[in-house]
Structures are given as C-alpha cells and as structure tokens.
Amino acid sequence: MINNTPIGVFDSGIGGLTVVKEIMNQIPGETIIYFGDTARLPYGSKSKETVITYTRQIIRFLIGKGVKAIVIACNTASAFALETVKAEFDIPIIGVVKPGAKMAAKATRNGRIGVIGTVGTIESGIYSEFMSQTNPRVKVFGKACPLFVPLVEEGLVDDPVTYEMASRYTSVLLDKDIDTLVLGCTHYPLLRKTIRKVVGEDIVLVNPAYETAKSLAEVITHKGLRNDSSPKIDHKFYVSDGAEKFRQFANTILPCEVMETKDINIEELG
Length: 270
Ligand code: DGL
Description:
This protein has 270 residues and is an alpha/beta fold. It has 11 helices and 10 strands.
C-alpha cells in the first residue's frame, strides 16, 4: 500500500462531511475520497441487511479508487455493517460509534448519558454496549430522531420547525437527568447550535467525529500508512444523486473549496 494514496469516507448524504472536516483539521496531509449515497438516503430507517449491502457496494467503489483506509462516517452503517465488512475486506475500516461511545463514557459526571440517532442506530443498542465496556456504571437513554436528517438535508438547520423537533426529541432525555448527550448521527453536528439552545449550557454535547478522526490518525500511523511525502491534496467527492446541491452544501461545511462533485449511477455500484 502506498502512503500517499487517499482515505475513503462515506455516508448516506452530507452528514459524513462533519467527519471529513475533523479529518482535514487533524491530518491535513491526507487526501479524501468521499461518497455520499444521496440517492438512497436515509439509511436510518432501512433494515440491517440493506445497509450492509449498500456498505459493501460503497467499500468496493472506494477500494476501486485506490484508498488505503476507509471511514464509515455514518452511525447507522457503523452500527449495522462495520463488523461484517471488517471481516470481509483486507483494508483498515473505522466506524464512528466506538470512538464516540468511549468519549461520552469518559465525559459523564453523573453516569447518565443520552444518545440521539437514527431509528437503526438507537434500536441496535450499540452505543450502550460500547459505553458499558468503558464504564460499566453508565446508564444510557436513547432517542431516535427520524426528522432530523431530512431537516438537515433540506437546509433547515435554523428553522422554527427544527427547534420544535429538537425540543420534543430531547425533552424525554432531559427528564432522565442526563448530563451528556451524544450526537449519534453524523448529520446532527450540523444542528449543534439548535440542540445547544434547547438543552441548555450544562449538558456536554459529544460529537463522535473528533474522536473518529483521532482514531483514524492512530490507525494509519500504526500501520505505517501516514502520508509522509509532500502532499499534493486533491480531494474528490462523489454522490449517487444531486451533485451540485451537495457541492454547494459541502462548501458551507468544509475548510477547503469543493470545485466539483461527480454523480455516480448506483447501478454501477453493482
Ligand atoms: N448520517 C447517518 C448516520 O450517522 C444517517 C442518516 C440517514 O438516516 O441516512 O446515521
């Protein structure tokens, strides 16, 4: 494997860009190839089998682009498919759930943690599983927030409807006296300000993207895959639908300019 080959990152849509942003900040010498499966979003309401199939297809696509490691920048796909694809592909694959769970289990003071995510992520119980491994005394309360992803994808991050939904979703967790809240879907950090307003200043908000980028840096360093040549950064962005809308959105999130986003026909993913 050549160190100056790119890192593959994918999500069902734009949410994974919150992870890309952290990777670009923490390991700026690495090139990213991103895939957003916008034609098949949302993943959060789909079955485990379907999400595993999509994940496999995208991993093959990214490997075909010559990546040296892959980040599943989607909590739902990490929850449903990470273990399966790790056993199937001979390339480092990192998910977002474990790093986020560890961080939250360390951050809590009263041992009561809320997790918000898609229906798939919350019903999988995976956050609770990983958190108990780090801190067996934690109590984890999950709440699925199925309207958040479409609100973000529609650009309604600062809209009264989003405030209303954020308040409804989080009130059941605040009633449980949580002191830490995990943004357990990569779309949710884009709603951070809204969520902060409704939960107040005392709750610790955990964005797993930060720890994920840190884990990625550790894994590629450990495997001798860090880009040690003088970097010629040429990030590439692919989506399965709506390339121009995606490109414009990416430019509001990322620290670099996205000049072009390419549409990939999902039939081609096989
Ligand atoms: N951003 C994805 C996640 O972290 C899922 C959004 C969706 O439902 O497609 O779970």
